[in-house]
Design goal:
By secondary structure, the protein is mainly α. The chain contains 9 helices and 5 strands; from the N terminus they run E-E-E-E-E-H-H-H-H-H-H-H-H-H.
Length: 298
């Protein structure tokens, strides 16, 4: 039995034997990859292109990060995503003093935002300048959309900070704690400080690896360090943007009914501004792979 359908990109008529249903194929007219449907004239599901290995760096990294990233805020296809991000930030802002709902809202919203960031990195890495589509899911998939990104971010951070964590465990008898780590000047203090900051420095490369590579197995020191000597200043740009996001987020405050309306508006604006910088930072991480993918070992 033959299954006939149209290419999801160019509309060309395609036919396959029914035994190939569910398999991946490619349109000979436009090259679009898709999954062969089970019945005739069903719309086939597109398969996103995988990052292509590059032989040489692509110029224009700084322009793409600092100039082209502004385009995502005015592109018509990004309106829905941007509105949803604004709604999510406002939801968290308003529920700041809602008793236990504050913790639930923070967990759910940051889980969704982490997933949004991972998708944003992936899309920027594969030559896609659109923001990710909204993924909410229902019932169990909704929970997975929250728990999955949380686990990916925290476990990635744990792996890059593992040398520091091990070092702190051995330094317990020395009276060194996380709170007094940067107040000491001994050799052990300096070593632990270097391990902590070194892990944070590698975090953008690590989260890029898990977002695009799709596995923790690639989080090897030689894989993470390979592109840095050859593209150090572009990488420092990604580190600076991600650091700015973290520092700005630490300065944000949420809704307080006792303050003046102008102060409330300023606080909400600050929360929204953090997400603007976060979009720049996550795109910079993805663009680092797009422009310097030839330096990666994976």
């Amino acid at each position: 039995m033959t299954i006939e359908f149209n290419c999801p990109k160019c509309g060309a008529l395609i036919a396959f034997d029914s035994k190939h249903a569910g398999k991946q194929a490619k349109c000979l007219a436009c090259g679009q990859k898709f999954l062969i449907p089970a019945e005739s004239f069903q719309k086939p599901k597109k398969v996103a292109p995988e990052p292509k290995p590059k032989e040489d760096p692509i110029p224009g990294f700084y322009h793409a990060v600092l100039v082209d990233s502004f385009k995502v805020f005015v592109h018509p296809q990004n309106v829905t995503t941007l509105v949803f991000v604004i709604a999510v930030v406002c939801f968290r802002f308003v529920l700041a003093n809602a008793c236990c709902l504050n913790y639930v809202a923070n967990f759910v919203i940051w889980g969704w935002l982490f997933g949004f960031y991972l998708n944003l990195i992936s899309r920027a890495a594969i030559d896609d300048d659109l923001l990710p589509e909204i993924e909410i899911g229902t019932s169990i998939t909704f929970v997975l959309y929250i728990l999955g990104p949380f686990f990916i971010f925290l476990y990635t951070l744990f792996l890059v900070e593992l040398p520091f964590i091990i070092g702190m465990s051995f330094a317990q008898d020395s009276g060194i704690t996380f709170t007094n780590l940067f107040f000491g000047s001994t050799g052990l203090h300096r070593l632990l400080q270097a391990l902590l900051l070194g892990g944070l420095f590698l975090f953008p490369a690590a989260i890029l690896t898990t977002a695009v590579g799709g596995t923790f197995a690639l989080l090897r020191p030689d894989y993470l360090l390979a592109p840095l000597p050859k593209a150090l200043f572009p990488y420092l740009t990604t580190v600076a943007l991600l650091t700015a996001v973290c520092l700005l987020e630490m300065q944000t405050t949420q809704y307080d009914p006792t303050v003046e309306p102008t102060v409330t508006i300023a606080r909400l604006a600050m929360n929204l501004f953090v997400q603007v910088v976060a979009i720049f930072a996550m795109r910079a991480i993805g663009l680092f792979y797009r422009h310097y993918g030839c330096y990666f070992k994976w």
